[in-house]
């Protein structure tokens, strides 16, 4: 499977579908890769209705509820057939790497584990059914700590895949990958350094295409990138003023 084939013309489920990042991922997967995308939201947040078309459809599901995930799988099978990829964001993606109250951390971690297990055990088996060769399960984390905990547990998750799929090659057929986004902190990042959602989405998709089991995505521009962009913008403004001044003097 080449890098472009990793994403091209795939049926993909994206959780946390009400977030701007998930919707940016959806748009790029449809436009650049001709994918069919299921955006899944828990219903507590609003997903823009314009996102729904022939290639993208919206579904309400609490991914921590196993019964709801099972029902979602039946519905998606009718719309898309077996999925090729699941992109799972944390159940509670926070803006920033700042500490959170312990009780919130415990709830978020518990919910994320439940969601991961539900999605993995329900959507992975169909990826190897009827002669299919496998699929991808991508987890998006927004802090180094959560990403490290996930990757440290990867052998356990490989064992889990073996236990639910009757194939000794299951871990190789169902690739588990982690994309960790560092520096998601809009409030503390200087103006102009933070990437937009579409730029972050593009970097995440590049990380998925890399086929690495763990990929780090920077969501901030380097100072060199920032200065280069600023210089180009200033040059464009200066050129526009010069052209405007030349037009006025010609009268």
Can you give me a brief rundown of this structure?
The chain is of the alpha/beta class.
Q: Can you walk through the features of this model?
A:
It is a single chain. With 251 residues, this protein is α/β, with parallel strands linked by helices. It has two domains: 3-220, NAD(P)-binding Rossmann-like Domain (Rossmann fold); 224-251. The chain has helices at 3-7, 20-33, 66-80, 102-127, 144-152, 154-164, 170-173, 197-209, 223-249; strands at 11-14, 36-41, 56-60, 85-89, 135-141, 174-182, 214-218. The protein has a seven-stranded parallel sheet, sandwiched between helices. Mean pLDDT is 75; it is low at 92-98 and 185-190.
Key traits:
single chain; 251 residues; alpha/beta; Rossmann fold; 2 domains; seven-stranded parallel sheet; 49% helix
Give a topology summary:
Elements: H1 3-7, E1 11-14, H2 20-33, E2 36-41, E3 56-60, H3 66-80, E4 85-89, H4 102-127, E5 135-141, H5 144-152, H6 154-164, H7 170-173, E6 174-182, H8 197-209, E7 214-218, H9 223-249
Parallel strand pairs: 1-2, 1-4, 2-3, 4-5, 5-6, 6-7
Name of the CATH class of the largest domain: Alpha Beta
- Identify the strand order in the major beta sheet: 3-2-1-4-5-6-7
CATH architecture of the largest domain: 3-Layer(aba) Sandwich
* Beta strand %: 15-25%
Mean pLDDT: 75
Unreliable residue runs: 92-98, 185-190
Helix content: 40-55%
Radius of gyration: 21 Å
Count of discrete domains = 2
Order of helices and strands: HEHEEHEHEHHHEHEH
